[in-house]
Amino acid sequence: MQMRSLRGKNLVAGCYDPIAEVLAVRFAKSGEYQYTGVPENIWVSLQRVPYPDKYFTQTVKGKFTSRKIEVEDESWIRERGEGTDGSARTSGTSEDAAGRVRNGSADGADKQPYDAIEDDRNRLYLRTSVSVGRCDAQGAGGRVVEVYLPQDGVEFHEDGHYYTLNGERIPFSLTGAIKLAGFSRQPQSAQEAEAWAKKAVLGTKVHQYSDWLDRGEIELDDLKAYPEYFNRVLGWQQFRQDFKFDPDLTLCEVPIAVKVNGMLYATKCDAFGVMGDEENLVMAVIDKKCSVNIEPHYALQTMGEALCFKGRAEALGMPLKRYIVQLLPEPNGGGKCYRAIEHTDRNDERIFVGACLANVYKRLEYGTLKVG
Known about the structure:
The chain is of the alpha+beta class. Helix content is 29%, strand content 23%. Helix 1 runs antiparallel to helix 2, helix 5 crosses helix 6 (227-243) and helix 7 (298-306) crosses helix 9 (347-365).
């Protein structure tokens, strides 16, 4: 992700790392600087105030440890896998379905994606993640929400399709909780079940390729040979541009566990980030869908994902929106390959938490869930 533009005459751009509490800013005259120990509310206000130069001088300048970021540091360029002339240097043999080499190294060991490299410039992109550890938030009815990230011991096990927290299996996945409560429609025949399984494979690939596109690991043109994926991934790119959505790649497609009044479930959020112009900035949870029909229970799904970030949104005084983005196989009449549907019903939270409670009751009743 690039720095977010600011409206100052000299202070023209910035980004923030909420975990390290590091602010990076770009000045038109003197280049880029890093400030350590800056509270997150300063970064949020910096994006909203009409005169960011004055606000920065009042709240940051001379008050925090700072140092200049050398943008053209050749060691950083080499770290990214580029030559000093800007040309890409790639080694290794791991390829995706689009035929691109991904994260290979000469000795065969995997390298981290560019966005995960720990260097001054790459780790300071805008991120609006929840803090490491628990994050309490008051929901409807005074609920207490605790959020756990991979740093807290949350893992997803692909082979059995389940989650664990510090080695202990989490009782419910988000989709499993909705399914067990009877809110989601299930296939009514063997033929329908087979069709759903094929759609699930398609959806997994589209999720994967759109995530790689966000991370800069593939180009859209790489998918032209795969028409079943190309238009849908194009639709995701169009949505991002039209809605000015900037995903937080540290929290997209990563396992997160949520405890609501003691009820624990886990999920992976398709996309979470900030949306809109600087003066109308909001947080947003996005769920990508390749299905033909938009099911009513999708609203509960986005609600379960939104609870992961509700505490941060409340702490920063920012709205938190929920969207389903239906990715289409062909462009619609307006030339768009997506359809965006916002979920706004506040009752979704009560219904979802009720679904979790019903599942806990069922599993206690049948003796499949132990308490304490």
